[in-house]
Design a protein that fits this description.
The chain is mostly helical. Helix content is about 80%, strand content about 0%. α4 (about 70-85) runs antiparallel to α5 (about 95-115), α6 (about 120-145) packs across α10 and α7 (about 150-170) packs antiparallel against α8. The longest helix has about 30 residues, at about 30-60. It is globular, with a radius of gyration of 18 Å.
Amino acid sequence: MSEQRFPNPYAQTGRPLSPSELGVKPDARLSSAFLTQAFLWMFVGLLVSAGVAFFVQSNERLTSFAADNFMLLLIAQLVIVFGISFGITRMNATLALGLFFVYAASLGLTLGLIVGAYPQASVVSAFLSASAMFGAASVYGAVTKRSLAGLGGILFMGVIGLLVASVINIFLGSSALSWLISVVGVVIFTALTAYDVQRIQNGDLAIRTGSMEKAAVIGALHLYLDFINIFLFMLRLFGGSRN
């Protein structure tokens, strides 16, 4: 995959500034190209995950493998996400895209188990609701004149809070807390969707990674994670009664 380089013309002696921080925007055609590539790879990643999840549910060997190695898969997925996120500037775009698809396939294994634990009606309702919320947030992030750059730190702390609350609830087993975590999770990742779309559109990721192709991969990863988390939190809300 050839890469179109984007050196940061706004770099100063300290940390390079992003276009969003400086209040500038790239040409409309360039913004559209940023979004198109990121959404393309995100949708391909979702198709990979959906395909693997389908085979998990229809293949006993895959189901057993995913169940027996569930924690190992989760750890591997975290390693891949952190590897792409923190190593994107040092790896080429082809490697980053390959790792993204490996991540999407591995998540399909775990999604196959998770989705299989809920009634089909709940899965369909959660997917449609997540799609609607993700789509609305994406449109808002792309068309709003308001800068969402200031939300980054707040949303990051919100994600950390969700993780802490989820770990605590493993020991408490509170259904009320689980419901609250799910509602807050939907709100946070819906807001993150709008935030990430605006960052992609403004060229922040292209400046950070140094190329459009790398920006498309890391942007696709962010959008993929936003959608999957909205879907999983919605699934917990709709799937109060499991199979």
